[in-house]
Design goal:
heterodimer; A: 285 residues; six-stranded antiparallel β-sheet; 24% strand; B: 383 residues; alpha+beta
């Protein structure tokens, strides 16, 4: 195991981010490789935060420590390893500029799980009449006092094409008795299944500004009247607007390479108005 | 002429064929929220379905004219919702086409309104009256009323003194103390300046241990990780019993009961996904265990990876602490000495740290335990 890790450290250090050929190892029969994969895959979005920020008690650091391997990876290298290197032709100058911004010694940019300006786009499949429809929902972490919860902030389409005049709000977002705990992302927001069944408290799971946004009434009405039924989450994407002036999205890549898990899949540098426009488009404002 | 008069204490939302009554509490660019005063329930009505609204103080608003990001619109909304603002200093009469008269109604008969004893307004041309008291009447269909009201959206929030306004208008024989205004169109709204996002970097205590200590000062992170690991191992032990052909039914039932106690409650779910299937069946924990009981092998082996990932603890708004544990397992089932089933699964469990108080030798101690929540089981390889 020690040797495997030493080798992997070399791989990370050289920033040869795990090519396909290397990944085509005998994953199934090689317990050592599977363990290495487990260590290097960005398993949860929580771990993406850890690595991006190079937290002193990150999982990867703790693994190195427990095996008495010196941790020589810099934050720069850790962030570089968070890019999806498959099916992406990255502009290396842009990646370099991005890393320069976020690792600036004078004002480093750290991602904040509890902060504003990062969102989960959760593509949900619903049963609708005889078929199914896919509706992307936008969720964010909301904090209150010292606690946190996931809330639904926007809905991105109205495939039912229904027109809603009036909905009755059940529950009260101002006096919540129900909420989605701050780790439901761990199981790909499958908790939404219970949320959409809890029609007696439905509005408590939504952000207070949800109803200021497009499609909100139609969606709420369809859920409340049981016109659509949640089936499953098809995929999740995270949008980060915390590293001004950069916007990046993070998707999950399930593969046997070590460059796997939650990885940056798009990156763009934007002006302040463009960043605001992106946020508004994302939230259907 | 038919007229409908509003109940004095309620706001009214006029839809093409309906009137909603209650207290308007919020107006967004999408919908109007109001509380029905009979059942205290809150409702949202889509803005595009509302022709106009008149509140209990006589202020009126057309949602179609509200502009997102407009300062003026925000002002109008605030004024409409606020409990202590009044709109007019006199009674208002709205006539077709596009005319508003303001004065003091001294008398009304079947055909006319008499203003300040000096003039009269023919009801034939009237579409709405809003009294100083806030009460109102509309004459004719709501869409026709809206067509007149929409011309008066740019009135100042607080009208200037009557003396500063021009007087007299069509429909009035004479008036000295009354004022008349014809509707205007166009917009004075200007978009609000774009907001520049400012992001503060996370505080430097983003190190998990520091956060952990801050969140749960009485709990050691290592201890939490060990306890979380122990719970997942314990669950595996019970699963082994359930799959063991030689285990008596009684032991299996006991294992199910004990396994359930590892979870926060019986509502906790197990979600099973695989590379081969698009569906993700979910089972409540007890149902899942009962199903497992039906799968029997002579011998089973469960191999754990040496490492497991334990996330930071995060405090929920219910006061509990939540975390995630992820680990891999290789499961092998044998029958008649032959390997008949094998899979490698990734298990991802929500873990919940709960504190409780216990009396020990007369003193109350705050203790804590780790319980399992929803668990995702993903098969990444199977024979």
């Amino acid at each position: 195991m020690h040797a495997i890790l030493q080798k992997a450290v070399g791989v990370l250090s050289l920033l040869v981010v795990f090519s396909k050929t290397q990944a085509q190892q005998v994953f199934e029969n090689d317990a050592g490789y599977r363990e290495k994969h487990f260590i290097y895959e960005v398993k949860l979005i929580d771990e993406f935060f850890e690595r991006f920020n190079d937290d002193s008690s990150s999982f990867i650091r703790s693994v190195y420590k427990s095996r008495h391997i010196p941790f020589t990876l810099t934050r720069d290298k850790l962030i570089r390893s968070l890019f999806n290197y498959q099916a992406q032709h990255w502009d290396t100058t842009m990646i370099h500029a991005f890393i320069e911004t976020v690792t600036d010694p004078g004002s480093p940019v750290l991602l904040n799980f509890y902060g504003d300006n990062w969102y989960a786009e959760v593509n949900c499949q619903f049963q609708y009449k005889a078929g199914t429809v896919e509706i992307p929902l936008i969720l964010k972490i909301e904090t209150e006092n010292s606690g946190a919860r996931w809330v639904i902030v926007a809905v991105k389409s109205n495939p039912m094409k229904q027109e809603t005049t009036e909905v009755r709000l059940t529950g009260s977002p101002e006096h919540r008795s129900r909420s989605m705990n701050p780790v439901i992302h761990g199981n790909n927001f499958i908790e939404l299944d219970s949320v959409f069944r809890d029609r007696g408290h439905l509005s408590e799971y939504f952000d207070s500004l949800f109803f200021n946004r497009k499609y909100s009434l139609n969606f709420y009405d369809a859920i409340q009247k049981n016109q659509i039924q949640f089936i499953k989450v098809n995929r999740v994407r995270y949008h980060y607007l915390q590293a001004v002036p950069w916007i990046f999205t993070v998707d999950y890549f399930e593969r046997k390479d070590l460059n796997a898990g939650w990885l940056i899949n798009t990156l763009e540098k934007v002006s302040p108005p463009d960043m605001e426009a992106y946020r508004k488009k994302l939230l259907e404002e | 002429m038919l007229a409908s008069e509003a109940a004095h204490s309620q706001d009214e939302l006029y839809l093409p064929k309906d009137v909603k009554k209650g207290k308007v509490t919020e107006i967004s660019p999408i919908a109007v929220k109001y509380q029905n005063q009979k059942n205290a329930a809150e409702y949202l009505v889509s803005n595009d379905k509302i022709l106009f609204m008149i509140n209990s103080r006589g202020d009126f608003l057309l949602p179609s004219q509200l502009t997102k990001d407009s300062f003026y619109s925000q002002q109008r909304i605030a004024h409409f919702i606020a409990a202590d603002t009044s709109y007019s200093r006199g009674d208002q009469l709205f006539l077709s086409p596009d005319t508003r008269l303001e004065g003091v109604i001294s008398k009304e008969d079947n055909n006319f309104f008499y203003l300040s004893d000096t003039g009269k307004v023919d009801k034939k041309n009237l579409v709405a009256v809003i009294y100083t008291s806030g009460a109102h009447k509309i004459y004719g269909p709501a869409d026709k009323v809206a067509a007149v009201l929409e011309h008066f959206r740019h009135l100042p929030v607080y009208p200037p003194p009557l003396s500063s306004l021009s007087s007299l208008a069509a429909g009035m024989d004479n008036s000295t103390g009354n004022k008349t205004e014809t509707g205007a169109t166009g917009s004075n709204d200007s978009p609000a300046p774009a907001t520049v996002l400012k992001v503060s970097p996370a505080s430097n205590d983003s190190a998990a241990a520091a956060i952990f200590a801050k969140l749960a000062p009485n709990v050691n992170k290592k201890e939490f990780e060990e306890k979380a690991t122990r719970k997942t191992e314990k669950l595996t032990e019970y699963l082994k019993i359930l799959c063991d052909k030689t285990a008596p039914a009684e032991a299996c039932n006991k294992a199910i009961d004990q396994a359930v106690t590892l979870f926060v409650n019986e509502e906790a779910k197990i979600m099973v996904s695989s590379l081969k299937s698009n569906t993700i069946p979910q089972y409540k924990i007890r149902n899942y265990l009962m199903r497992l009981k039906l799968v029997k092998y002579d011998r089973i082996e469960v191999e754990w990876t040496n490492v497991q990932y334990v996330s930071d603890l995060r405090k929920g708004d219910d006061g509990n602490f939540y975390g995630l544990v992820q680990f891999e397992q290789k499961f092998s089932g044998y029958k008649d000495g032959k390997l008949v089933y094998q899979d490698i699964t990734v298990k991802r469990a929500e873990v919940i740290l709960k504190t409780y108080e216990k009396s020990v030798e007369g003193t109350t101690q705050t203790l804590w335990d780790v319980l399992l929540g929803n668990v995702g089981v993903k098969s990444i390889q199977s024979l």
